[in-house]
Amino acid sequence: MSLRPSASDREFRRAAWKDGIMPTDVSLASYIDHTLLKPDASREQILTLCREAVEYSFKSVCVNPLWVGTVHTMVKDSGVLTCSVIGFPFGATTTEVKVFEARGAVADGADEIDMVIDIAAARAGEKDVLVRDILAVADVVHDQGGVLKVIIETSLLTDEQKVLACEAAVEAGADFVKTSTGFNGGGATAADVALMRRTVGPDIGVKASGGVRSLEDARAMIDAGATRIGASSGVAIVSGERSTAEY
């Protein structure tokens, strides 16, 4: 089943976006992974993130592995998913470490995992290395019925390298490709989202993350082919405002 919205869904959303305002009950909220990945995030900030996610019916709460158990406890009966990152933010850990992190996050209650690829391998054109790295994590996540998103860090890659990384993710069985960590240079651009969509086709999700701070930003990403938005500005986005948050 395709993760990309149907043509009728897209037409409905465009009608709802008339005058630049999209009400939260139309489905924009269901695109958003409500995110807090700062290293100094406090417990109270995480709890607030969870409460906002439940209130606005965001797709998931995305946090560092330390907070997965807390988030899972807060949102488990609400319909909001628990998402965690691994190999974050540089991707410069061994595959064995990524597998260990993924296994721990899933055990703590993560429904979805966003992993950072081996960026050096992507820049070197080593597709086989990328596939092995992603596949090892995919096996752990999928064994528990979870979803794997693969962060390719577009700001550090050429277009050719972005295509290679996306192809590796598809070959390894990833469920999504994701633009950015938000911590290594630029974030998502509509051009990168469109390139990733063309590369992976209609049956793999594309997540835009990093720098999506407003309704207009989100609309541009979805129109380019994104099926998920990673942002710390979810409340501002669905309220038709612009956030000054960094991620």
Describe what you observe in this structure:
The chain is α/β, with parallel strands linked by helices. It has one domain (28-239): TIM Barrel (Alpha-Beta Barrel). 44% of the residues lie in helices and 15% in strands. It has helices at 7-16, 43-56, 68-75, 95-108, 119-124, 127-143, 159-171, 190-200, 215-224, 234-238, and strands at 32-36, 60-63, 81-86, 112-116, 147-151, 176-178, 205-209, 228-231. It has an eight-stranded parallel β-barrel with strand order 1-2-3-4-5-6-7-8, surrounded by seven helices. Helix 9 (215-224) links the parallel strand 7 and strand 8. The two termini are 30 Å apart. Pfam families: DeoC.
Give the topology string: H per helix, E per strand: HEHEHEHEHHEHEHEHEH
Query: What is the count of structural domains?
Result: 1
CATH fold descriptor? TIM Barrel
Helix content range of the residues, please?
40-55%
CATH class identity:
Alpha Beta
Q: List the quaternary state of the chains.
A: single chain
Strand order of the largest sheet: 1-2-3-4-5-6-7-8
CATH architecture: Alpha-Beta Barrel
So how many helices? 10
Largest sheet: 8 strands, parallel, barrel
Number of strands: 8
Which overall shape is indicated by the principal axes computed on the Cα atoms? globular
**Stretches with pLDDT under 50, minimum 5 residues:** 1-26
Structural class: alpha/beta
The average pLDDT value, as a whole number, equals 91
> How much β-strand is present in the residues?
5-15%
Q: How much is the radius of gyration in Å?
A: 17 Å
* Alpha carbon gap, first and last residue: 30 Å
